[in-house]
């Protein structure tokens, strides 16, 4: 289960995440994926140089407190690491940095400095890969002129690489129906040249809208079947389906649901044993800008 949260230093927000959302996800039998966006409560309140400020330690008080709270969650009901009630989590921080729609995009040097500093605070608390694993997730194509590879913090600081990509069909003026291979193969090849870290597809879905604007539910169902066959052949170890009808009918609540469920269960057997797969994603409405038109 993928949760979206930001860097808003408000106790109500933080308590909601650590006292309600994460325990509920764990109780449901899932390992939470926390998509942790460096928004300071809103996009408007976030400075354009948020990565530099974070790298320089300006937000250390908040980040250290947040790391302590995650440590308490991972420690289980007794809050103590190293015994039978321990929990686990993934952290997907500052995703899609190779696009041009987030304030943490554009300066790869400061991004890498930020990533290493923030992750270091968790490692210092013994929140290592047996308990918390870090997912570095890019958009499936570069938008804005800075290559994804330049943002890579290094194998010593990343447990998983992730790619976000969608079949937009004909829902946008710039889009057309794409197979899973067409969406993901180019970026997978690029990242595999840089690292052998475990591979995840951390946001994905397909519309049912094909040429002419008509819904093709059978076509979407076939795409989902093709997608999960593709992930197994491509060595993908984790998949997160974007299960919300946002820009289009991304969700699997249509006739495609049975196909999505069947193939998601099959994919789970290929997931890294220490941390079970995350199944579905629901994007939080707050503080998430609408994905811009991209060429």
Relative strand content: 15-25%
Reading the helices and strands in chain order gives EHEHHEHEEHEHEHE
Helix segment tally: 7
Q: Quick one: CATH class? A: Alpha Beta
CATH homologous superfamily designation? Glycosidases
Shape: globular
Structural class: alpha/beta
Protein name: GH26 domain-containing protein
Organism: Stephanodiscus triporus
Pfam family, one: Glyco_hydro_26
Keywords: Glycosidase, Hydrolase
Structural notes for this entry:
This protein has 295 residues and is of the alpha/beta class. The protein has a single domain (2-281), classed as TIM Barrel. Helices cover 33% and strands 16% of the residues. The chain has an 8-stranded parallel β-sheet with strand order 1-2-3-4-5-6-7-8. Helix 4 links the parallel strand 3 (89-93) and strand 4 (132-139). It starts with a strand and ends in a 14-residue tail after the last strand. Residues 254-295 have low confidence and may be disordered. This is GH26 domain-containing protein. Belongs to the glycosyl hydrolase 26 family.
């Amino acid at each position: 289960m993928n949760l979206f949260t930001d860097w808003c230093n408000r106790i109500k927000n933080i308590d909601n995440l650590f006292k309600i959302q994460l325990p509920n996800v764990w109780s449901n039998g899932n390992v939470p994926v926390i998509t942790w966006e460096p928004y300071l409560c809103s996009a408007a309140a976030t400075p354009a140089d948020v990565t530099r400020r974070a790298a320089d330690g300006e937000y250390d008080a908040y980040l250290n407190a947040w790391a302590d709270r995650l440590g308490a969650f991972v420690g289980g009901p007794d809050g103590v690491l190293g015994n039978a009630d321990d929990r686990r989590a993934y952290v997907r921080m500052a995703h899609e940095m190779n696009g041009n729609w987030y304030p943490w995009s554009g300066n790869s040097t400061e991004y890498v400095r930020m990533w290493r500093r923030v992750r270091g605070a968790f490692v210092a608390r013994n929140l290592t890969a047996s308990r918390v694993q870090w997912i570095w997730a890019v958009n499936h194509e570069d938008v804005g002129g800075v290559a994804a590879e330049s943002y890579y913090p290094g194998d010593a600081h990343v447990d998983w690489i992730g790619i976000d990509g969608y079949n937009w069909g004909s829902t946008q003026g710039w889009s057309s129906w794409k197979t899973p291979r067409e969406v993901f193969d180019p970026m997978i090849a690029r990242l595999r040249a840089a690292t052998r870290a475990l591979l995840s597809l951390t946001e994905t879905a397909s519309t049912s809208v094909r040429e002419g604007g008509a819904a093709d539910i059978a076509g979407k169902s076939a795409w989902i079947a093709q997608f999960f066959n593709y992930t197994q052949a491509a060595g993908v170890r984790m998949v997160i389906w974007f299960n919300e009808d946002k820009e289009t009918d991304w969700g699997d609540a249509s006739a495609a649901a049975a196909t999505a469920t069947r193939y998601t269960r099959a994919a789970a057997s290929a997931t890294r044993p220490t941390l079970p797969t995350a199944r579905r994603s629901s994007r939080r409405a707050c503080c998430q800008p609408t994905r811009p038109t991209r060429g």
